[in-house]
Amino acid sequence: MKHIAWCLLLLCQCALGQNKEDDQHTVTGNPYLLKEWCDGVVRFSSGRTVTQFKLKFDCLKNMLLLQFNGSAFAAESKVQEFVMYPKNKDSILFRRGFPSTDKTTDQTFFNVLLQDKASLLRLVTRNIIEEKQLVAVSGRMNRRLEEAEYYYLLQNGQMQLLPANRNELPSTFADKKEPVAQFISSQQLKMQSPEDFILVVKKYNELLATP
Q1: φ, ψ for residue 181 (rounded to 5)?
Q2: pLDDT tier for residue 143 given thresholds of 50, 70 and 90
Q3: 84, 82, 86: which is closest to 96 by C-alpha?
Q4: Which residues pair with 131 in a beta bridge?
Q5: Which among 34, 38, 145, 172 could disulfide-bond with 126, CB atoms 3.0 to 4.6 Å apart, if both were Cys?
Q6: pLDDT value, residue 9
Q7: pLDDT (tens digit, 9 = 90+) per residue, 77-115?
Q8: Where does the pLDDT of residue 10 fall: very low under 50, low under 70, confident under 90, or very high at 90 and above?
Q9: Torsions phi, psi of 10, nearest 5?
Q10: Would you state the pLDDT for residue 18?
Q11: Residue 211 has what pLDDT?
Q12: What count of Cα atoms within 13 Å lies in the side-chain half-sphere of residue 46?
């Protein structure tokens, strides 16, 4: 019990569901990476690790949620990274502390897809789309969540947004542009999935290692 109490104090948690923000009542769609709570591991900046919480990731708010004994809490800034273990799926690693971009800060959680000389990070988020109603009701608009993801190359301490267009992507890799373009073509990659981006960045690392 002392260990649990320490965790709750360390996380500086606030209970969810008691004071929902107004926009949660007007926006339709699923903000979560996975709808179900998952087993997982949470690692703090202090180096401490805990495993007794169920995890869920809110993509709209870029926020880790924790569940314990039926109560849900929002984890605060002391969390450095966490791993989710969905049933019958591969584990999912999220980490923060990366250089800021025009879309993110050093407190933004990224899904780490590949760690190498050039690493691959995925920003999983939600966009709020507003749609006019055919019949206006008190001036309100329909608002729905749309899934969105962005891929970044982390190399030499710099974050670079990768184009989703398969024809534009090779230019990101400077002097390796031509072999990367040939690889994308030979593998018939459409660059519409994390797996495609992983294959390309793995190839790029192989090229970097070749004299």
Answers
A1: -60, -40
A2: confident
A3: 82
A4: 142
A5: 145
A6: 38
A7: 799 999 999 998 999 999 999 999 999 999 999 999 999
A8: very low
A9: -65, -40
A10: 42
A11: 74
A12: 8
Q: CB-based contacts of 124: which residues, under 8 Å, 6+ apart?
A: 33, 57, 59, 111, 148, 149
**Nearest-5° angle of CA 10, CA 72, CA 96?**
55
**CB-based contacts of 35: which residues, under 8 Å, 6+ apart?**
none
State the Rg of the chain over Cα: 20
For the record, the structure tokens of 79 come out as 């969390």
Render pLDDT for 148-160 as a digit per residue (tens, 0 to 9): 999 999 999 999 9
User: Which string of b and e fits 163-189 if b means at least 16 CB within 10 Å?
Assistant: eeebeebbebbeebeebbbebbeeeeb
- Report the mean per-residue pLDDT for the chain: 87
The structure tokens listed for 30 are 């699923």
**pTM of the predicted model, to two decimals?**
0.85
Tokens of 194: 């994390």
3-state secondary structure the chain: CHHHHHHHHHHCCCECCCCCCHHHHCEECCCECCCCCEEEEEEECCCCEECCCEEEEECCCCEEEEEECCEEEECCCCEEEEEEECCCCCCEEEECCCCCCCCCCCCCCEEEEECCCEEEEEEEEEEEEEECCCCCCCCCCEEEEEEEEEEEEEECCEEEECCCCCCCHHHHHHHHHHHHHHHHHHCCCCCCCHHHHHHHHHHHHHHHHCC
Direct distance between the N- and C-terminal alpha carbons of the chain, in angstroms, rounded to an integer: 57
